[in-house]
Amino acid sequence: MDLFRFGNKELLNLFYVLPIFLILFILYIILKKRTLKKYGELTLVKKLTLDYSVFRVYLKFIIILFAFAFLILAVAQPQFGSKLEEVKSKGIELVIALDVSNSMLAEDISPNRLERAKLEISKLVDKLNGDKIGIIVFAGDAYTQLPMTTDYGAVKLFLKTINTNFVPKQGTSIGAALKLATDSFTPETEAGKAIIIITDGEDHEADAIEQTKTAAESGIIVHTIGMGTINGAPIPVYNRYAPKTFRKDREGNVVITKLNDKILNEIAITGGGEFRMANNASVGLKEILEKIQTMNSVEYETQKFTAFDEKFQYPIAIALILLVLDSILLNRKNRFLKNIKLFETNKNK
Fold first, then answer.
1. Fewer CB in 10 Å around end: N or C, the chain?
2. CATH number at residue 278
3. Is residue 176 part of a domain?
4. What pLDDT is attached to residue 198?
5. Alpha carbons 77 and 110: distance in angstroms, whole number
6. Which one-letter DSSP state was computed for residue 336?
7. Is the pLDDT confidence value at 163 over 80?
8. Does residue 52 form part of some domain?
9. Which secondary structure element, helix H or strand E, spans residue 29, and what is its range?
10. What's phi and psi for 278, nearest 5 deg?
11. Statement: residue 318 has pLDDT above 90
């Protein structure tokens, strides 16, 4: 089974330039004819320039156009891969549940709680080696953003898209996140399993501890990261056409969202994990990752295409041949083809 791809697929957009070249060439021919008319009748001008080959002008343009097209293919790096390699990886399974409620927009952790959490998760992903990771987002409900995977590039890509609009129901249901995270692990595996809850802890439900106990009974370690400060901060509201304001309650008072460290600490103790309180210097994911990496890791197998062969040499060779052909092809007729007039008609008939 063969697999074909382009290493720099985005460079194929250069093909959109080719029609522009064609339009410019047509305009050039039109303008040239208009210029020649200034010197007299076209039939008379053609007789005075018998050595000039219109056909060769067209041919040279076509050659240059095709040469440019093959150069685009070359820089786009065409690659063929036909070797299906079995890759063995060894690691643990980790689910990160990230709070995306509006309170995570508070700026007591710079630049705000949510963006700082996303940045630190991205750094954590860079330190994984063979471990499986899944991403869950939650507010009033919980949703799987990314199932368990070892594709760290995809994890970082999905992280960039996460925002507070991902979950339509507002609130903070840590219990729903824990239940979904518990169900996300591979069944009947001996790999170490861990959940990291990243939230400000403003839980609006009462089942977080019960769900933590359920996870612990399944051998899952639950860690918590508290995003925010004890004193709290207002929740900014951004409007494209107005200055930044802050969210208010029904009485018109500015809402202050505070870190609920008590519930997060209780969840960590119940889940056999650690609780870390984030600040502007450190979020605490590094220390938790060190604990997680001491857990039992198992070997599993994945399959993927490997050993892609670069084939850019072929389109480059064709482009060079065309350029050489263009350089030796003159605009003037040779002495053997001089009397051939492909673009003239006999008007005397």
1. C
2. 3.40.50.410
3. yes
4. 97
5. 41
6. T
7. yes
8. yes
9. helix 17-37
10. -75, 150
11. yes
In the chain, the number of structural domains is 2
Q: Which residues pair with 99 in a beta bridge?
A: 138
192 vs 149, 216, 266, 298, CA distance in Å?
15, 12, 22, 8
Range with the poorest average pLDDT among 37-46, 120-129, 171-180, 304-313:
37-46
Q: What is the pLDDT of residue 40?
A: 54
Q: Which residue has the tokens 């194929």?
A: 12
- 119 and 18 in one domain? no
Name the percent of the chain lying above pLDDT 70: 83
Burial class (CB in 10 A: 0-12, 13-18, 19+), 37: exposed
Give Dmax (Cα) for the chain.
104
Specify the pLDDT at position 1: 46
Q: Are strands 256-257 and 83-91 parallel, antiparallel or unpaired?
A: unpaired
- Say how far apart CA 201 and CA 224 lie, in whole Å: 9
Residues near 296 by beta carbon (within 8 Å), at least 6 away in sequence: 92, 190, 191, 192
Q: Sheet containing 193-199: give its strands across.
A: 142-149, 132-138, 93-99, 193-199, 220-226, 272-277
Higher pLDDT, 109 or 188: 109
Fill in the amino acid letter for 349. K
Name the residue among 166, 170, 117, 116 with its Cα closest to residue 145: 166
Domain extent for 62: 3-81+309-328
Coil, strand or helix at 214: helix
Residue with tokens 């210029």: 35
Residue 341 in tokens: 């007039």
Phi, psi of 300 (to 5 degrees): -135, 165
Q: Are residues 254 and 323 in the same domain?
A: no
Extract the tokens encoding 214.
């359920």
d(CA 197, CA 13): 42
Question: Which tens digits make up the pLDDT trace of 182-240?
Answer: 999 988 888 899 999 999 988 767 789 999 999 999 999 999 999 999 999 999 988 87
Considering the domain boundaries, does residue 279 fall inside one?
A: yes
335 inside domain? no
